[in-house]
Amino acid sequence: MNSNPLIPVWDAYNASKDAFRITKKAVKHSDKVILLKKTKFRLQSITDVETSITQSAKITEDLFVLSLWSTHERFVRIYLQQKGATLQAIQPTVLAPPMYTYFCDEVEFWKPNQILDLLKKTLFMTDSHLIGQAKQILAYRDWIAHGKNPDKRLSSNITAPFAYKVLNEIVETLLLN
Amino acid sequence: MMIAENEAEEYQHAEQKKQIYLTRVNQLFGNIQDWLKDEPVTVKQQNLEIIEKFTGPYTVPSLSISTQAGQELADIKPRGAYVILAEGLVDIEGGFGREHITYMVDGGPYSYRPLPENTTQVIKKPMFKGINEDAWYWVEDSRLDRANAMDKELLRELITLVSDYEF
User: Fold this and answer.
1) Three-state SS across chain B?
2) A21 at B interface, C-beta within 8 A
3) What count of Cα atoms within 13 Å lies in the side-chain half-sphere of residue B43?
């Protein structure tokens, strides 16, 4: 794994923002009957379409934070599993392959916060605040994934661009190590 | 914004952080009123309530920008003092999208990257280029790493971006 998996997610986020903008322009375009053909928008009023797209854009930003997190988390788990590959070289050799398999299975069950703590104590000792920011993104990801509980207040606002920035810094650092 | 690891400690700092944030929002809104005073738009200030974990609910000003004919262009709404990588968040939102404006201090956030030739050593690197003073910034694209300080021209561009209105 030597490429950054967050870049396609980030590009998709920007593409979706542009797509929403273009759709809003299409609704008011003189060729809108052709442009909106075979879409659900063709039977809706301009106001309803605009409201729908505005709401969709906000939901989409949250979903991209979720996607950025899950892509990042998968990258880190695979990174750790690959780093554990030296277990395959231990003695006695009969122990090595099953022990490595067991390690890989276990990594799948490590809690995201535990993984972040591991990174904080090791590769990010000098950059522990970055892991603190990642924990805030994780809390936001959990909040979205569990239905945005209105009674639960999050410690920070999270935007998709800054979530990308924080998680990308972690991925880029791991790629260098 | 850096949050104390001990949450009880963060609650003690919250009121001070809120006041600093409100001062910065009011400065930004004062600038926006000034930047738009000669433009063919109307700016109305209202109040709204936001709720943050550490501060609880509080009232903030918000701005609504419309054409002189009454067409709504953009709302500028504070989101809160607490935001990752910055010290305050304000959204500018119109029919064509939403953009985030954030307050950056001390050159903005930094990261510490291992040196490619010697990964046991790290270099301190700003996450965003262009943060030369404590101010409100818009980050055009997080991949380009460039932050742009808010000024009259950028405000006009952002209003156009979120509303499709051309000045």
Assistant:
1) CCCCCCHHHHHHHHHHHHHHHHHHHHHHHHHHHHHCCCCCEEEEEEEEEEEECCCEEEEEEEEEEEECCCCEEEEEEEEECCECCECCEEEEEECCEEEEEEEECCCCCEEEEEECCEEEEEEEEECCECCCCCEEEEECCCCCCEEEECCHHHHHHHHHHHHCCCC
2) yes
3) 18
Angle between helices A112-121 and A46-83 (to 10 degrees): 60
Which residues on chain A are in Cβ contact (under 8 Å) with B78? none
Domain regions of chain A by residue span: 6-176
Burial of B144 (0-12, 13-18, 19+ CB in 10 A): exposed
Burial class of residue B157 in the structure, from the number of CB atoms within 10 Å of its CB (0-12 exposed, 13-18 middle, 19+ buried): middle
Which of B52, B96, B122 lies at the smallest CB-CB distance from A153?
B52
Are B56 and B18 within 8 A, CB to CB? no
**Full set of structural domains in chain B with CATH:** 7-163 (3.30.920)
Tokens standing for residue A86: 């030296």
Say what the ipTM of the complex is: 0.90
A19: contact with B, CB 8 A cutoff: no
Cβ A157–B96 below 8 Å, yes or no? no
Closest-approach residue (CA) in chain B for A46: B95
Look-up of token digits 């063919």 = B40
Candidate from A14, A24, A155 with C-beta closest to B3: A155
Instruction: Kindly list the residues from chain B whose CB atom is less than 8 angstroms away from the CB atom of residue A19.
Output: none
| pTM listed for this prediction | 0.93
pLDDT tens per residue across all 167 residues of chain B: 677 777 888 899 999 999 999 999 999 999 999 999 999 999 999 999 999 999 999 999 999 999 999 999 999 999 999 999 999 999 999 988 899 999 999 999 998 877 767 767 788 889 999 999 999 999 987 677 899 999 999 999 999 999 999 99
